[in-house]
């Protein structure tokens, strides 16, 4: 069993043996124990597709549609989901590295034991994303993204770019946001209830409070 730790969060990761994987470039309704390299699935309609215990590298899934589906025990590397629509997909025990979700629409997604590292989520729309276990974003770009009605308790962000990330009706209780600039977040304070910060981030929270409460701060 392979694990990694981000902050205080322990994440179960896929433990794949390349000798056990069969090479393919075709997507089927039940893709299992496969290695996929540089496949072009741009604009594909993936209805009910289940991908398990597989390694996907350099694939193009931009502008694709995937609903519903399952992604379990997979390593996803340098894969392009730009402009894709994912709905009703369960993502569990996966490591997603260096992949692009620019402008992607993710709706009703369930995540558990998932590590996103070095990924782009700029201009992405995440709606009703629910964490049922450990989830972390490390060195990710989330600028100008919109998260709505997401339930992500205990999620961890590390060294992420969050400028103009908009949070609406989200529940992040127990989330660890240490090591990120919160100054340009577009959110009410209610979305940040119960999060963990470090002292250096207190000015960012003060800025958000002054903006939300429309306070006038004067120098004597």
Automatic annotation (TrEMBL):
<dbReference type="Pfam" id="PF13576">
    <property type="entry name" value="Pentapeptide_3"/>
</dbReference>
<dbReference type="InterPro" id="IPR001646">
    <property type="entry name" value="5peptide_repeat"/>
</dbReference>
<dbReference type="InterPro" id="IPR051082">
    <property type="entry name" value="Pentapeptide-BTB/POZ_domain"/>
</dbReference>
<dbReference type="Pfam" id="PF00805">
    <property type="entry name" value="Pentapeptide"/>
</dbReference>
<protein>
    <submittedName>
        <fullName>Uncharacterized protein YjbI, contains pentapeptide repeats</fullName>
    </submittedName>
</protein>
């Amino acid at each position: 069993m392979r694990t990694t730790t981000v902050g205080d969060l322990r994440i179960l990761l896929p433990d794949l043996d390349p000798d056990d994987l069969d090479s393919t470039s075709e997507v089927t309704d039940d893709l299992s124990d496969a290695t996929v390299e540089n496949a072009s699935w741009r604009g594909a309609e993936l209805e009910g597709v289940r991908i398990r215990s597989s390694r996907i590298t350099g694939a193009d899934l931009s502008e694709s549609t995937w609903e519903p589906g399952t992604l379990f025990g997979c390593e996803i590397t340098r894969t392009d989901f730009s402009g894709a629509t994912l709905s009703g997909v369960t993502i569990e025990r996966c490591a997603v590295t260096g992949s692009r979700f620019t402008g992607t629409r993710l709706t009703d997604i369930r995540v558990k034991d998932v590590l996103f590292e070095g990924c782009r989520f700029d201009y992405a729309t995440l709606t009703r994303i629910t964490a049922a276990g450990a989830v972390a974003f490390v060195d990710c770009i989330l600028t100008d993204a919109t998260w709505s009605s997401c339930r992500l308790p205990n999620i961890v962000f590390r060294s992420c770019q969050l400028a103009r990330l908009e949070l609406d009706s989200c529940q992040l209780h127990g989330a660890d946001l240490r090591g990120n600039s919160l100054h340009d977040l577009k959110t009410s304070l209610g979305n940040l209830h119960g999060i963990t910060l470090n002292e250096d981030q207190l000015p960012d929270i003060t800025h958000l409070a002054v903006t939300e409460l429309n306070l006038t701060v004067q120098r004597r």
